[in-house]
Design goal:
By secondary structure, the protein is mainly α. The chain has one domain. The chain is built from four helices and no strands.
């Protein structure tokens, strides 16, 4: 991890199963797993792209994940164009 975790892992590791509050996480039954489908994330391609400096700076100012946001924007545009071409 690049950032120092603020979680007290020694405390967490020392908890027994009975001490953990699962009230907001209901147990998943057999029906869930019977219908569950494993979906692996798509792999990403590493590319070099030339962007105007102000465009890149604007995305970077939004904080971490700017490359993901650029990808999402491009994917949304791609899907819109695909719908128009049908």
């Amino acid at each position: 991890m690049k950032r120092q975790s603020k979680t007290n892992w020694k405390y967490i590791d020392a908890l027994s199963d009975e001490e953990i509050d699962y009230s907001e996480i209901p147990e998943l039954g057999d029906d869930f797993f019977k219908n569950a489908v494993l979906r692996m994330p798509e792999s990403k391609a590493i590319v070099t792209i030339r962007l105007d400096r102000d465009v890149l700076d604007w995305f970077k100012k939004q904080g971490r994940g700017y490359q993901t946001r650029i990808n999402t924007l491009l994917k949304t545009y791609m899907k819109a164009q695909q719908r128009l071409s049908k």
